[in-house]
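[Meeting: bench + compute handoff]

Bench side (C.D.) handed over the final construct sequence. Compute side (W.E.) agreed to return the predicted structure before the next meeting so the bench team could plan truncations. Sequence as handed over:
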Amino acid sequence: MTGRIRDRRFAAKVVEAAEAVELIEPGANIGMSGFTGAGYPKEVPGALAKRVAEAHARGLPMKFGLWTGASTAPELDGALSDVEGIDLRLPYQSDPVTREKINSGLMDYTDIHLSHVAQRVWQGAFGELDVAVVEVSGITEDGRLVPSSSVGNNKTWLERADRVILEVNSWQSEHLAGMHDIYYGTALPPRRVPIPITGPADRIGTPFLECPPEKVIAVVETESPDRNTVFTPPDGTSERIAGHVLDFLAVEVRAGRLPRELLPLQSGVGNVANAVLAGLDAGPFDGMTAYTEVIQDGMLQLIESGKLRTASATAFSLSPAAVDRFNRDAAAYRDRILLRPQEISNHPEVVRRLGCLAMNGVVEADIYGNINSTHLMGSRIQNGIGGSGDFARNAHVSIFVTPSVAKGGAISAIVPMVSHVDHTEHDVDVIATEQGLADLRGLSPRKRAERIIAHCAHPDFRPALQDYYDRALQSSFGLHTPHLLGEALSWHQRYVEEGSMLPA
């Protein structure tokens, strides 16, 4: 037995990754751990990619279905995509090689709400799950699995897979033990019961994952770091967006619509999100909590400064410097952080009950408040919807943030009509850009359009948006949501043809 594998039944199954992947049948559906570059298997995917490449070199077809928690890292998504070893990918990805394969039609991709994955797997919507490949940080003497730096869908993979390969990663801090809350009370209707969470710090499960030893066909030992995307530091644009959001929250507190400690925070990832979190760290709000998907640098800083009492999530998404801080002081964070399965971290029932304040990014928004968060020019997938929909529809206040322009000013983030809809106007309360903030609550579509154009659009595009809206008021088929159908998507077509949404 080794230091991290303390059960002889599992220690007897330790093999090299190359031997483990030979136990996976071609065409199998594989559920792999990982969520935003945290807690993904480090050795098995690369060995599997090598096996695929060798098969293709001999003229033999070999592809696998790849199911994860969310995005992973180049060693997993990138390696298997590069050798065209993925048949169907779900539910979220952010790897550039994977994205190119999807948009080239070489890989099928199913983009679904993250809270829906577990129940659809239990329903059999994607077929059988043949193999689970799950990273853990340790195995106890009695065979319980200590989860890693993400939980994601691991509980479901271990339950539903016919066979299991474990990667035991000794790079992960031993102090992760006790930081997880794995709930085994979910079920399909009609046996479903309420999720008993009334506060972000509530523990309702066990610190360990469970897996019968007889299911485990191989154990691979690793000592490899997570690889999360390093986000650029907040710039002037993201800081201005953050300022508008913080001003809005302050107004809500003064009006008595939010308590002084706010409501549980949910924040997407990226430099705008980190700018908002940095503003909260410097702001007047104390005793805050978070019920979110990922814990990123800004949220870790809020915990360290004492502004954030507790944070519940399903994974970390930390820069290398923040990972070093966390691993050094993991024991100190254990009572302040909970990592849960994503079917719980993103559960609509819990989000609604807690009254989360949701903050997420967009690709584009239209003048009526519809949001596209996944597609470029209507047809090229960027990453996926992730968990933004889980929170947006059920949040106490749903805030979407974005710079007003992209590609050096060639693209407007505010358009007449979005080219793809992920969140309808009914799920959007607030839109903020560096230009300003539009509170859309209680407004009719026409009032929404006036506010979004005036407060959120970039000055280079504001006159054209106003002109479109004014003409739509004169000649639209109806005046509830006025549109000129013949040119509603002309801005996108102009960009595709000319490289800019700006008129010549």
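W.E. noted at the follow-up: Residues 126 and 249 are 41 Å apart (CA to CA). C.D. will use this when planning the next construct.
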